[in-house]
Design brief:
six-stranded parallel sheet; Rossmann fold
Length: 193
């Protein structure tokens, strides 16, 4: 039997309790109740420390030390968690990242600036080197992260970009596509080895 792949979810800013926020609890239920997904994946879904500032100096060590994300893990990040996903992959090897409503600048927001994710230039080459795949989900009608920012982030990551023409900031639990894209990316990377 193949070893299960560990999914690690990095939530958006202010998402506590995490299991009651956005699509996170839905994803956990989906993996727990779908026999096919349960056979392939585990999901580490926990409340994060510092949920209202999401500081890089706290979140990245938490992902490394408490959630034990490694080269066999897939990180799923939403909003601020998407930024954290990419910054984590800049420093550490992971199997892949799947970001939802991702961005690579502070969007003119003081709280985002305080997080520390935008204090240094991005090393997209290192993120690509440290991941086997990258997938970005972008909502065309996102009122928090403009679609052009999400598209630029996906391009800079050299990621597959899956756009939702009617999609917003991915608050609702309508994410069957997420697992399909992860499974597709895994199949493609396994074919390459």
């Amino acid at each position: 039997m193949k070893k299960k792949i560990k999914l690690v979810l990095l939530p958006g800013m202010g998402c506590v309790p995490v299991k009651e926020s956005n699509f996170y609890g839905w994803l956990e239920t989906k993996i727990r109740t779908d026999a096919n997904l349960r056979e392939k994946f585990t999901l580490d879904l926990r409340d994060f420390p510092d949920p209202h500032l999401c500081r890089q100096s706290i979140w990245l060590p938490f992902v490394r030390d408490e959630l034990a994300a490694d080269e066999h893990s897939i990180l799923i990040g939403h909003s601020s968690g998407a930024v954290a996903c990419a910054r984590y992959a800049e420093k550490y090897k992971v199997k892949g990242i799947c970001v939802c409503a991702g961005y690579d600048d502070d969007l003119g927001d003081a709280t985002e600036r305080a997080s520390g994710y935008f204090d240094t230039p991005w090393d997209y080459g290192k993120i690509q080197e440290n991941t086997k795949f990258r997938v970005c989900f972008a909502g065309v009608k996102d009122h928090l992260v403009p679609i052009d920012v999400q598209r630029r982030f996906a391009k800079n990551l050299d990621a597959k970009c899956v756009e939702f023409p009617e999609g917003g900031h991915f608050f609702a639990p309508t994410f069957e596509e997420l697992m399909r894209e992860i499974e597709k990316a895994l199949d493609e990377t396994e074919d390459e080895t």
